[in-house]
Specification:
The chain is of the alpha+beta class. The protein has 12 helices and 27 strands. The chain has helices at residues 13-24, 49-57, 61-65, 98-111, 155-159, 228-239, 285-305, 315-337, 342-355, 359-369, 427-433, 475-485; strands at 2-9, 30-33, 46-47, 69-71, 74-76, 79-81, 93-95, 115-118, 122-127, 132-136, 139-148, 166-168, 171-179, 189-193, 196-204, 207-215, 250-254, 257-260, 265-266, 269-271, 277-278, 393-396, 399-402, 412-416, 440-444, 455-458, 464-468. Helix 1 links the parallel strand 1 and strand 2 (30-33). Helix 1 packs parallel to helix 7 (285-305).
Length: 490
C-alpha cells in the first residue's frame, strides 16, 4: 500500500493550485487525474482579479500573463462595468486559455515536489478516524486527507456521501475554438438575442472562442460529441441567418446548472472547485472561486499535517468558503435572470445600465462579479479583518516592493506600517511574535493611504487576521496569532 499525506483527485486548476500551496509548506501531495494526457481544450478562458492577485502572491502571475491578454473590463449579465473607477487598486482580469493556466500550475507543482499521475481515476474511498484509503488506477493508497477537485461529476464527493442539490435548467450550449475568420469578426463581443447568447472573443494569437447558449431548450448529453453543423445551426437560430465558423480545433458542450455541496468536508475528505459548486459560467467566476478554495484549504491542511493547527482550523474551511460558494451561485443566477427571457427583462437591463453610471453601483457590481467582495469573519471594530488587499506598493528600507512580493513564501505576515526606520519594528511587537518566527514573516514599511492601519497580521492566504494601532497593546495580536497559527514554539 502506498502511503501519502494528501491525495488530490483532479489535475485541473483547483487541484494543481492546491498542490502548489501544499508544496510551499513542504507537503508533497499526490495528484490523481483520470485523463491520460493533459486536456487540449480550454473550457475556461478568463481569470478575474481575485485569481490574478492570488497568483501574483505566489509569483505565478507573470507566467500566466505570458500566455494571456490583459482585459481591464468587467460585466454583470453582459452589462459593461468599469473597473478603473474602483477606489482601491486591484489587478485586471486576464483572458487566458485554461490549458495554459493548467500548464503553468502543473510546472510549479512539480517544482515543489508534487507527484501527478494521469490515467488514474478514483474508484473507491474508505475512511476512518486516522486516514483515508483511496482506490485508483489499480492502486490502493493510504493518506491522511483526500481532497476532491474532480469536477461537477465528482466521484470523491459522491463516495464521501456529500449531497449536491441544485437546479438543472433547460439549456443548450456549445463552445468552439476556431481560427480567426472575417465572417466572425462582426460578431466580436457578447450578444443577447431573444433565444439566448452568442459570443465571439479572442482566445489566443489568431484564435477566436465562439459560443452559443440557448435558453429553454433541452440540452444534449456530454457523451454525444458536438458538431460544426450543430453549433452553426444554433448560431442561425439565434441571429436569424447563417454564420460559418470554419474548422474548429475543438468543440464542447456547456450547461446552465447550479449546484452547491451541502458541506465541503466529510471527516477527512474535502471538496473544492466544481466538486463543491457549479453555476452558469460568467466572467471566470467559477474558476476563480475554485482557486480561492484551494488557497484557503492548502495552508490549513499544511498546518494540521505539521501538528501546529489550532483547534477548529480545518473546520474553518467550510465555514469560510461555503458562504462564498453560495454567493457565487446566487449572483450568477441573478445574471442569468437578467439575460432571459430577453423581451421581458430588457427594460430592467436598461434601468440597471443607468444605475451602473453611479460609482457606488459600478463598484459594487465589479467587486461582486470579480470575487473582490469576499470577506471572512467581519469585525465591526476592525473592518479590515477578513479582507485581502491587492498589490499595494510598500516603501521598505530595502526599496519599494508590492505587498504581493513580500507574501510569496506561503507564510503569515506581520506588516508594520507605524514607522519606517532602519531599526525596524517596535521591540515589543517583535517579542510578541517571536514564538511564531518560523510561521510569520515581519515586514516594516512606510504608512500608506491604501492600507488604513498601523499594523496588520495577514494569514498565508493574504486575508487580514488582525489590525492594530500604535497605541494598542500586543494582547490582541497574540490572540490572533494563536487563533490562526497555533501555540507558540517553546
Amino acid at each position: 500500500m502506498i502511503r501519502m499525506d494528501v491525495v488530490i483527485a483532479g489535475a485541473g486548476p483547483v487541484g494543481l493550485m492546491l498542490a502548489c500551496e501544499l508544496g510551499l509548506a513542504g507537503i508533497r501531495p499526490l495528484v490523481l487525474e483520470r485523463r491520460a494526457v493533459a486536456r487540449p481544450d480550454s473550457p475556461g478562458m478568463a481569470i478575474n482579479a481575485t485569481t490574478v492577485e492570488l497568483l501574483d502572491r505566489r509569483g505565478l502571475a507573470d507566467r500566466v500573463r505570458a500566455g494571456g491578454l490583459e482585459w481591464p473590463q468587467a460585466h454583470f449579465a453582459h452589462l459593461m462595468l468599469d473597473p478603473a473607477r474602483l477606489r482601491e487598486r486591484h489587478a485586471s482580469t486576464v483572458l487566458v486559455p485554461q490549458a495554459h493556466l493548467e500548464s503553468c500550475l502543473e510546472a510549479r507543482a512539480r517544482e515543489l515536489g508534487a507527484e501527478i499521475r494521469r490515467g488514474h481515476e478514483v474508484t473507491g474511498v474508505r475512511q476512518d478516524g486516522s486516514g483515508v484509503t483511496v482506490y485508483a488506477g489499480g492502486d490502493e493508497l493510504s493518506c491522511r486527507y483526500l481532497v476532491g477537485c474532480d469536477g461537477a461529476n465528482s466521484v470523491v464527493r459522491r463516495l464521501a456521501g456529500i449531497s449536491f442539490p441544485g437546479v438543472d435548467a433547460p439549456f443548450h450550449g456549445i463552445v468552439a475554438e476556431v481560427d480567426a475568420d472575417g465572417e466572425l469578426m462582426p460578431y466580436l463581443g457578447a450578444h443577447q438575442y431573444p433565444g439566448g447568447v452568442f459570443t465571439v472573443g479572442p482566445s489566443g494569437p489568431g484564435l477566436l472562442r465562439v459560443s452559443t447558449g440557448e435558453f429553454g431548450v433541452q440540452g444534449w448529453d456530454d457523451e454525444i460529441p458536438a458538431t460544426v453543423d450543430e453549433i452553426e445551426a444554433s448560431i442561425a437560430r439565434l441571429v436569424g441567418h447563417d454564420v460559418r465558423i470554419g474548422t474548429p480545433h475543438w468543440l464542447a458542450r456547456w450547461h446552465n446548472v447550479t449546484r452547491h455541496a451541502e458541506r465541503y468536508r466529510a471527516g477527512r475528505v474535502f471538496v473544492a472547485g466544481d466538486a463543491a459548486h457549479v453555476h452558469f459560467p460568467l466572467g471566470g467566476q467559477a474558476l476563480s472561486t475554485g482557486v480561492e478554495d484551494a488557497v484557503n484549504l492548502g495552508w490549513k491542511l499544511a498546518a494540521d499535517l505539521a501538528g501546529r493547527a489550532p483547534a477548529g482550523l480545518l473546520d474553518s474551511y467550510h465555514r469560510e468558503r461555503h458562504p462564498v460558494g453560495a454567493r457565487a451561485c446566487l449572483t450568477t443566477r441573478a445574471q442569468v435572470a437578467l439575460m432571459h427571457p430577453l423581451l421581458e427583462v430588457s427594460p430592467l437591463r436598461e434601468v440597471i445600465s443607468e444605475l451602473i453610471g453611479y460609482d457606488d453601483v459600478n463598484e459594487h457590481l465589479v467587486r461582486m462579479a470579480g470575487g473582490l467582495d469576499v470577506t471572512y469573519a467581519a469585525d465591526d471594530d476592525r473592518p479590515l479583518v477578513g479582507r485581502r488587499f491587492g498589490a499595494v506598493p510598500l516603501s521598505t528600507p530595502d526599496g519599494v516592493v508590492s505587498l504581493a512580493e513580500v507574501s510569496r513564501a506561503g507564510r503569515g505576515l506581520l506588516l508594520d506600517l507605524s514607522a519606517h526606520t532602519a531599526a525596524g519594528t517596535d521591540p515589543g511587537v517583535l517579542a510578541a511574535v517571536s514564538g511564531w518566527s518560523g510561521r510569520i514573516d515581519v515586514v516594516v514599511a512606510s504608512p500608506t493611504t491604501e492600507i488604513p492601519a498601523d499594523r496588520l497580521l495577514l494569514r498565508p492566504d493574504g486575508r487580514v487576521a488582525w489590525t492594530g494601532g500604535r497605541g494598542d497593546g500586543v494582547q490582541g495580536l497574540k490572540e490572533a496569532l494563536q487563533t490562526w497559527f497555533g501555540d507558540p514554539a517553546a
